[in-house]
Every structure is written in structure tokens, then in C-alpha cells.
Design brief:
The chain is α/β, with parallel strands linked by helices. Helix content is 34%, strand content 14%. The two termini are 17 Å apart.
């Protein structure tokens, strides 16, 4: 273990791309605006060209992620939030539901279920930032709502073994910072959502909704007791609107964003698909993992190594000189650290999420380069030494 006690020499190496935001995330290596030159601009998304582009986005998603042929994939409005809200508003209420919350997004889904949908039979499984609820207590014969990877806590579920293969309920999984970087057991998941701006670095406002045959059966057999906004309606006359899952979107998508997603998918396919993407994310995480192991002032927010995310890596300041301070002072040091690195143009947007404990959040998805993370660690040590020296804590 090595600490920092006073000013360190200013690092020479700088990250070539200082983009470590957890969403929108870094663009793929080598990306430029030239990559979008074939976008179907000035055309209706319902034109032959527009529908072909949207259909290709769906099929490339299936190919890269290995989504089973019998699962539907749709492009829907309002990013991952819109996709997950669609699922909750159209499917929940048919049976009791277990909701897991261990960071801000899970808390959001819990609020929607209890305060907006006003579901009567809800069981809540909560944990503090850095931990998971007891997954063994979850009843998958009820509907289950959970995030696979807690973007704001850096905590992910280790696997899908806690979900029964012969379950009676539906599993609704918000996978927005897990897709394209972690293995998703499709046979255990009935609804999976994500957005383009996570992991592959796409542009915002579009969500992906993936449905198992069991989820489709629920849609076609259950009508919720509350009114459904137009953009949530996926059935007509008791049957699934299949067009949504072939590229006929409910509302108007940005064809420029579609082109950007297609570019990212082609890049992903070219590096070996999900296997290649996961390997890059794992390598990136290992850079920070090795640095944390040898650095005394920092530690992971996730307490169990088996649950540490390989994408949204959340860190806390573990230096006793800082942890002895009041929470407000700890938060101020973490804020100054992130701001200093941003002003030096070596790391953008790495402060902890506003609802999370004070610290740092560094994106390690596949579009980030391991060499940039290695350079960043030197700057982190340099910045921490400077900030704590200025605060009289060196």
C-alpha cells in the first residue's frame, strides 16, 4: 500500500481521451462525425430507407448481444427510463411484485411502483450504497423489478442464479449499464432495457426494450387498471403491435442518432461482439483494480469483489485523515478532486452521482482505452496529494 503525503510531481502522460463519464459515455475509439455521413437525414423514419436502418439496428443488437430469436427487440422513446416505464406501466399489477433497490435508479422504480402506479402487493428489498439486498429472499414466482448493474453505486448482481428457470412471475431488468459489458442470462430475464448512450457511447433519448415470449403473453392477456399514455401502448385488440419490434417506432426517432448507434454496433461486431466488448471492459476495470490495491487513500464503494461493476466503477476516499472529517468536508474534498482533474482536461465528469456517497465514478466500458485509465491513475494520485495538502491534511 502506498499513500500520498504532500505534493507529487506533475504527471507527464495524459489520457488521449479524457472522457470517463458514466453516461453519455465515451464514443468508440476512432469515432468522428464522418462516421455519420450515411445517416438517413431529410427522410421519414417510415420511408423504405428509414425502416431499413431501424430494422438493421434491431438485428445488429440481437447479433451482438446474442438475444434469442424468439425475443422481441424494440426501439422506444425516452431512453432507458422510457423503456423501463413502458414495461412497468403495461405489465405490473397482474401479481405481487418484489422490487430491489440499492442505488438511485432502483429507488426510482420503487417510487414509481408505490406512488405512481400505487401497486398494493409490493415487497421491498433495499441495501445501502455499496451492497446488495439478500437475493435469496426474492420470490421469482412474483414479478421482480431490479437493476442488473447499479450505475450510481458500482454494484451489480453477480449472476442470475437467484432467478428460477421455472418462475411464475416476470423479471423486469434495467440493464442500461450492463448490456454490452456483462453476461445477461436471457432465459432468466423477461424484460431487458438499456439506452444507446451507455456502454457503446451512443447519443441520448432512445431506449431499447427486449421482451421474452412470457412478457409478450403478459401484454396480450393483461390490461392494467390505469390509463396508458400513447407512447406506452404496445398492444391493439389484445395483440402485440409487432411493428414496434421490426423498426416501426411509436414516435419519431433521430436518424442521426440511429446512424451513430449503427456505427457503434458495427465496431462492436468487428472486435468480437459481446465477448470482445466484455474483455475490454474487464481489462479497463483491472487497471483501476490494481491501482486501488496499491493506493492507500482510495477504495471501492462496492464492498464485495464479486459484485463490483466493470463499467461504472464507484470509488470512495478511504484515507483516515479524510474519513474523520464531517460528511460535508469529505464531499468538498471529493468535489475539488474531480473539478481539478476536469480543469486539467485529464478527466471529465468523474464526480460521484449526486445521490451517492461522496467519491468518484469512473466509466470503464469498452469504448474507453486501458492506456487512458493507466494515465488517469497517476493524475488521481497527483490531484489527491494537492487537494489534501491545500486542506492541511497532507
Amino acid at each position: 500500500m502506498t499513500g500520498t503525503t504532500g505534493a507529487l510531481p506533475r504527471p507527464n502522460a495524459r489520457p488521449q481521451r479524457p472522457h470517463f463519464s458514466s453516461g453519455p459515455c465515451a464514443k468508440r475509439p476512432g469515432w468522428s462525425l464522418e462516421s455519420l455521413k450515411d445517416a438517413a437525414l431529410g427522410l421519414s423514419h417510415r420511408s423504405k430507407t428509414g425502416k431499413a436502418k431501424l430494422g438493421k439496428a434491431i438485428e445488429l443488437t440481437r447479433a451482438v448481444l446474442g438475444v434469442p430469436a424468439e425475443y422481441r427487440i424494440g426501439i422506444v422513446p425516452a431512453s432507458d427510463t422510457g423503456a423501463f416505464e413502458m414495461a412497468m406501466w403495461t405489465m405490473l399489477g397482474a401479481r405481487g411484485v418484489d422490487i430491489l433497490a440499492w442505488e438511485s435508479f432502483g429507488e426510482g422504480w420503487l417510487t414509481d411502483a408505490v406512488k405512481q402506479l400505487k401497486l398494493k402487493d409490493v415487497r421491498t428489498f433495499k441495501a445501502e450504497y455499496g451492497a446488495l439486498p439478500n437475493l435469496a429472499e426474492v420470490d421469482t414466482d412474483r414479478d421482480v423489478v431490479f437493476t442488473w448493474n447499479g450505475t450510481t453505486s458500482g454494484v451489480r448482481v453477480p449472476n442470475g442464479d437467484w432467478i428460477k428457470a421455472d418462475r411464475q412471475g416476470l423479471t423486469l431488468c434495467d440493464a442500461t449499464s450492463a448490456a454490452f459489458a456483462q453476461d445477461l442470462p436471457w432465459d432468466r430475464l423477461d424484460v431487458v432495457t438499456f439506452s444507446w448512450q451507455k456502454v457503446l457511447g451512443g447519443e441520448a433519448a432512445h431506449g431499447m426494450l427486449i421482451l421474452s415470449p412470457r412478457a409478450v403473453a403478459r401484454l396480450e392477456s393483461y390490461s392494467p387498471p390505469w390509463p396508458l399514455p400513447k407512447i406506452f401502448r404496445m398492444t391493439k385488440g389484445g395483440k402485440l403491435v409487432e411493428g414496434i419490434f421490426t423498426g416501426e417506432t411509436i414516435n419519431t426517432p433521430s436518424m442521426l442518432c440511429v446512424e451513430d448507434y449503427l456505427d457503434a454496433l458495427e465496431w462492436a461486431k468487428g472486435i468480437g461482439g459481446l465477448k470482445g466488448l466484455r474483455a475490454r471492459a474487464d481489462e479497463n476495470f483491472s487497471v483501476l483494480d490494481r491501482w486501488v490495491a496499491r493506493t492507500g487513500w482510495v477504495d471501492f464503494l462496492a464492498t464485495d469483489p464479486a459484485t463490483r461493476s466493470n463499467t461504472s466503477v464507484c470509488l470512495r476516499i478511504a484515507d483516515p485523515k479524510v474519513t474523520a472529517l464531517p460528511p460535508e468536508a469529505q464531499a468538498e474534498i471529493a468535489k475539488k478532486l474531480a473539478n481539478l482533474l476536469q480543469s486539467e482536461k485529464v478527466a471529465y465528469d468523474i464526480g460521484a452521482y449526486r445521490d451517492a456517497p461522496p467519491g468518484l465514478r469512473i466509466w470503464c466500458g469498452a469504448t474507453v482505452e486501458a492506456s487512458d485509465l493507466a494515465a488517469l491513475t497517476q493524475w488521481l494520485d497527483w490531484a489527491y496529494a494537492g487537494v489534501t495538502a491545500e486542506a492541511g491534511l497532507a
